Amino acid sequence: MNSISISQEASVFRGLVLPEKGKIVGYAALIDVFKLKIPLPNRIALISDKNRQYQNENWRVLTPRHQPEENLYRHLVFAIKYEGINLLFFKKLFEAISMNQVLDLIQEEPTGQYARKIWFLYEFLTQKELEISNADTKIKFIKLLDTQIQYGIEHGKKSTRHRVINNLSGTYNFCPLIFKTPKLENYISLNLSDKKNVYLNSIHKDVLQRAFSFLLLKDSKASFTIEDENPGTNRALRWGKAIGQAGSKPLSKEELVRLQQIVIEDRRFTNMGFRTEGGFVGEHDRLSGDPIPDHISARHQDIDALITGLINTYNVLEESAFHAVLAAAIIAFGFVIIHPFTDGNGRIHRYLIHHILAKMRFTQQGIIFPVSASILDHIDDYRKVLEDFSHQIMEYIEWETSTENNVRVKNNTIDYYRYFDATPMAEFLFDCVDDTIKNIIPAEVRYLQKYDAFKNYLDNTFEMPDKMVANLVRFLEQNDGKLSKRARAKEFKLLKETEIDEIENHFRQILASDF
Fold it and tell me: Which of 330, 358, 423 is nearest to 385 (CA)?
């Protein structure tokens, strides 16, 4: 094991052009050497031939003095120290090497922090205990996750056996991790929830109530539109009512099934409840009917463990006061990646965002936070985040077409859905939360304030009933601020031409910029 050459010197590595001459080290090099069937890290470590140190979206470049010795232990130390904890990597590495090799790793520095982290990770990820005595009680506890690199829970559970504090943002059966990035750190420092509350408190309560009623329907319709569905108003209202209750019920398997029953009205063609067969997102070949998957869902036999883990992880995050938006990214995107139902996964995934933001008090319970409307406005970015994850794991999933023209997965894939990097999902969700607070909610409030000003003018001048005002505004909005000849001759035939001209002029002054 100590004689392995691990660092990779090349100008191109797995289809990626190196930003400068140097050696690939750490996780990426180890994945290559041990032929582990997992995606490369989103940011790859490179030891530059020059004395340069920087990082960007894809590369972490370090100087020659950071070069680890050419053995497994030193590359693992380097990876943990500079690249954080990669649970999927360690799970697959422990499957690729023997228990004796793991023991040798720990014996390199039996009391050292990195050896103890490797020891803890082995027993956590394999659920097996090594034949090693507990660490000396005089050894200082160390946190598993370096919170300068990754987000962990504030008060982790102490493992007296390893003298390690488990501050992972999850549990054995479900533990995506999020890396600290300038974007995420900036969003967190902005205290968006407090800024939202200050803004909402400045708006008249009546306007707010009406705004959120409209936004509830808008968000519900947006969630259907994202799925390329066009629901009727009644169906959208029904789902909107469920969204309005987000945060009021505990998250459980039964609650997820209840939500699916609300989403799927006509159940004749859908196998309700958790899947009992394979699943995928994509198309079927028009001639053969074979599946053409863009995303392959978790195996149906893994769903119970994954959803149990997801719910347990949510409870851990809620109890530890983890940041609500980060928690929502982990749980909601984890759910849609697992894809536990035959249908309804997307809308429930977005419901979970509402639920977690309300339950963890980022938003007020009962007040809709129309994040689906923002997702729809950023649909290309949303799809890219999901597709990037799916494409990363697709090459490691062995599958065949079932007799029902479904996907049947042939290898063990559960770890791809348990342990993934949720950083891109968290950044995207924060973008949408920020957009919702800065643009979507204020735009609806401004519209209603202007609508009220226009209505007051009509009330004072013509004493129109509310229904006629609503119809008038709708006609004007639909026809570039002008009443059509048909509307003038029918619905508004009692108005004089001079009065209509005056109304159109006031509409342009007050409301035209908002339709």
Answer: 423
Specify which residues 291 forms β-bridges with: 284
Cβ–Cβ under 8 Å, residues 309 and 172: yes
Taking the C-alpha atoms of residue 201 and residue 203, their distance in angstroms, rounded to an integer, is 6
Distance of CA 367 to the CA centre of its chain: 21
69 C-beta neighbours (distance < 10 Å), count: 13
pLDDT tens-digit series, residues 303-326: 999 999 999 999 999 999 899 999
Q: Which amino acid is at 400?
A: E
Question: Taking a C-beta distance cutoff of 8 angstroms, is the pair 300, 275 a contact?
Answer: yes
Beta bridge partners of 435: none
Tokens of 286: 């028009």
Counted residue by residue, the chain has a size of 515
Say if CB 169 and CB 177 are below 8 A apart. yes
List, for residues 114-150, the tens digit of each pLDDT value.
Answer: 999 999 999 999 999 999 999 999 999 999 999 999 9
**Which string of DSSP letters, residue by residue, matches 51-116?**
S--EE-SSEEEE-GGGPPPSSHHHHHHHHHHHH---HHHHHHHHHHS-HHHHHHHHHHSTTSHHHH
Helices 497-510 and 441-462 cross at an angle (nearest 10°) of 150
From the list 43, 108, 44, 121, the residue with the least C-alpha distance to 73 is 108
The CA distance from 137 to 330, in Å, is: 34
Using the 8-state DSSP alphabet, how is residue 231 labeled? -
**What backbone torsions phi and psi does residue 437 show, to the nearest 5 degrees?**
-75, -40
The per-residue pLDDT for range 393-431, each reduced to its tens digit, is 999 999 999 989 999 999 999 999 999 999 999 999 999
